[in-house]
Structures are given as C-alpha cells and as structure tokens.
TrEMBL record:
InterPro entries: RNA_pol_Rpb7-like_N_sf (IPR036898), RNAP_I_Rpa43_N (IPR041901), RPA43_OB (IPR041178), Rpb7-like (IPR045113), Rpb7-like_N (IPR005576). It is found in: Nucleus, Nucleolus. It comes from Micrurus corallinus. Residues 132-175 form the RPA43 OB domain. The keyword Transcription applies. Belongs to the eukaryotic RPA43 RNA polymerase subunit family. It comes from the Eukaryota. Its main location: nucleus. Gene3D superfamilies: 2.40.50.1060, RNA polymerase Rpb7-like, N-terminal domain (3.30.1490.120). Pfam families: RPA43_OB, SHS2_Rpb7-N. The lineage of its organism: Eukaryota, Metazoa, Chordata, Craniata, Vertebrata. This is DNA-directed RNA polymerase subunit. Keywords: DNA-directed RNA polymerase, Nucleus, Phosphoprotein, Transcription. DNA-dependent RNA polymerase which catalyzes the transcription of DNA into RNA using the four ribonucleoside triphosphates as substrates. One of its GO terms (biological process) is transcription elongation by RNA polymerase I.
Length: 211
C-alpha cells in the first residue's frame, strides 16, 4: 500500500503528487469509526516495533490502593484499576498506557494506613505506552476530510487532527484528493488531554510521499 507523509510546509503540486500515488487501505469502510477497542498486549507490543508508532514498551512500578472487597482477589482489583487508566494520559508515563502484562506484586503483604480501609500495594508490570512527542512522526488512517483539516485514526484508537496549511486555499485543499482510508504519515505538533484524561493529537503535513 502506498502511503502519504506529512510534516514540513509544502506546496500544492507536492501534495497532489503525494495523493495521486496513494491508495485506500484494504478492508477499510468508507466511513471509519472515531475509535475502536484497545489492542491486546501482544498486538500492542508488535505495533511498537513499527516505524512511526510512537509506542514504547517499558517496565513501570506504581502504587495501588485496593478497596477491601479485593482482599482475596488482589489481581482482579489491580487489573480493574489498571484497565480504568488505559487510554488516559498519565504524567508518570509521560504518555498514554494502552496495554499491560506480567503484573508482579513487589512484596507479599499490603499495608493499611491509619483507619483507611484500602490495602496499599506496590506493583510492577510491563506496559506499552503511547508517547507521541512533538517532532515525532506518526502514521494514521484518514477518517475525515474537511475544508479546514484532515482527521486521522492512529492505532485504531487515537484521534489526530491535521489542519490545512494557511498558504493553501480551501479550493486547492479540496482538489488534493485526500481520501478516507488512506494511510498518512504526519509530524506531531503537540498533544493534550482534557480533564478526563482523553487524549488528542495535533499534527502537521509533510511534503514527501513514502509510496
């Protein structure tokens, strides 16, 4: 499959050349969903090996406060907390955890602090973390073409917005031929999360086609 790359400012002829050599991804519906379920740990670890994935595999230690109802089901309680934090930006990860595996409780017994009923544990696990830092390149599949921007779905989960360059007119933008289902490589400008930790990416088009 041909791909389009995005990142530095470019002219109309360069954009058009990149689009003409591109083809829609196979088995991609004409209207793509804004998000689907997260990949499994094995799938995420495989994706991390790909160029332009911005996925990192790391060991991470963290503190967990388990409600008393998980006293005899510690692993279930730990997984429930970790699952709730997936696809949410985390300062400790400097990114978004998307999958985890190989959970280890670092000591046999947990702690109860003062009169608080929670059981405090330290755990270590292997995480796959999405870290699209500014200046890095990402690959996504176009799922929206608008007069002002292109929408992309990254790893079938994260939404990215690539605005129309100011020096390109709306009519030129319309005639470039961006299509839903095309794979696009773009440069990350910045990423942000809202109060709920939901992640969004803003990107910038590049001039060279990888196809």
């Amino acid at each position: 499959m041909a791909e389009m790359e995005a990142g530095s400012t470019f002219g109309a002829a360069e954009v058009e050349a990149a689009v003409v050599t591109s083809t829609a991804a196979p088995n991609v519906p004409t209207t793509l969903p804004t998000c689907v379920e997260l990949p499994s740990f094995e799938a995420a670890r495989t994706l991390a090996e790909n160029r332009y994935s911005c996925l990192v595999v790391m060991q991470h230690r963290r503190h967990i406060a388990l409600p008393p109802r998980f006293l005899n089901r510690k692993r279930t309680g730990i997984c429930a907390q970790l699952d709730a934090e997936l696809r949410r930006y985390s300062d400790s990860f400097q990114g978004v955890p998307v999958a985890y595996d190989d959970i280890k409780i670092t000591k046999e017994l947990g702690d109860i602090i003062d009169d608080i009923g929670a059981i405090h544990l330290d755990i270590e696990a292997t995480f796959v973390v999405f870290q699209p830092k500014p200046g890095k390149k990402l690959m996504g599949i176009i799922n929206k073409v608008a007069p002002s921007h292109i929408g992309c779905l990254v790893h079938e989960c994260f939404n990215a917005s690539i605005p129309k360059p100011d020096h390109i007119t709306t009519e030129e933008w319309k005639n470039f031929g961006f299509q839903i289902g095309i794979r696009l490589v773009f440069k990350v400008l910045h990423f942000d999360s809202d109060s709920a930790g939901v992640f969004c990416i803003r990107g910038k088009l590049c001039k060279n086609s990888l196809g």
